[in-house]
């Protein structure tokens, strides 16, 4: 039973081919491509409004130099949001529950923001490692602490996204299993757990959207520090 709860986080294979690649490419099929009549198409209009709102929200705290990252951050936001929401459907696989994938997204983008700061303003970027007015005896310790906190940023991004989605999926499976088991024994308690399951599912939809937003927002804040 314990093993079956975690089977949902195993990457599915078909004839030795990992299906995670299909799950990563499938969200792109949900967004329609613009056509000649895209102005009168409600779906395309809603899609354009949604992308514009996300881009505006992410680019507001950044200056004009950071607006070059608009396409990358907006695409990442939509990508994570689509995968997280599709993973809540029955008999689906959520790639963002894999720590390796989340780190593969977080580390290169964090490194890009860091290298951008070292290239454009090296003094200011290195100045973040030592707060102004620090007593001389504390300088070596603070440099080590700030360097460690800087290096664990991509790990924190990946672990945060993985832990929140994994915990939510496990809770949904545990409560749904309890609802099915109690249905024939105690129908009243089963109905109560079904109501809890419904509320938890609504909460997990909110968590899926919030975690995608937090992931990209933190990357934009890291970028703001370096431009």
Automatic annotation (TrEMBL):
Q: What name does the UniProt record give this protein? A: ATP synthase subunit a
SUPFAM superfamilies in the record, alphabetically? F1F0 ATP synthase subunit A
Q: Does the keyword Transmembrane helix apply?
A: yes
Task: Please give the family membership noted in the entry.
Answer: Belongs to the ATPase A chain family.
Name the domain of life this protein comes from. Answer: Eukaryota
GO MF terms listed in the record are: proton-transporting ATP synthase activity, rotational mechanism
Cell location:
Mitochondrion inner membrane
Topology versus the membrane, per the UniProt entry? Multi-pass membrane protein
Q: Which organism is it from?
A: Adelomyia melanogenys
User: Which GO terms of the cellular component aspect does the record hold?
Assistant: mitochondrial inner membrane; proton-transporting ATP synthase complex
């Amino acid at each position: 039973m314990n093993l079956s709860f975690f089977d949902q986080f195993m990457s599915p294979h078909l004839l030795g081919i990992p299906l995670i690649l299909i799950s990563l490419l499938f969200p792109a099929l949900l967004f329609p491509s613009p056509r000649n009549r895209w102005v009168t198409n409600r779906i395309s209009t809603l899609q354009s409004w949604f992308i514009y709102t996300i881009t505006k929200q992410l680019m507001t705290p950044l200056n004009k130099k950071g607006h070059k990252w608009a396409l990358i951050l907006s695409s990442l936001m939509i990508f994570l949001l689509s995968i997280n929401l599709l993973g809540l459907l029955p008999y689906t696989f959520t790639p963002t529950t894999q720590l390796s994938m989340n780190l593969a997204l977080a580390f290169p983008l964090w490194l890009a923001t860091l290298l951008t700061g070292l290239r454009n303003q090296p003094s200011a970027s290195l100045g973040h490692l030592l707060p102004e007015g620090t007593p001389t005896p504390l300088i070596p310790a603070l440099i080590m602490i700030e360097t460690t906190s800087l290096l664990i940023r991509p790990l924190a991004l990946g672990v945060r996204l993985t832990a929140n989605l994994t915990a939510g999926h496990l809770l949904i499976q545990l409560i749904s299993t309890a609802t099915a088991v109690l249905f024939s024994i105690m129908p009243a308690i089963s109905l109560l757990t079904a109501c809890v399951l419904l509320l938890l599912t609504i909460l997990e939809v909110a968590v899926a959207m919030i975690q995608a937003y937090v992931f990209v927002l933190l990357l934009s804040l890291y970028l703001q520090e370096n431009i």
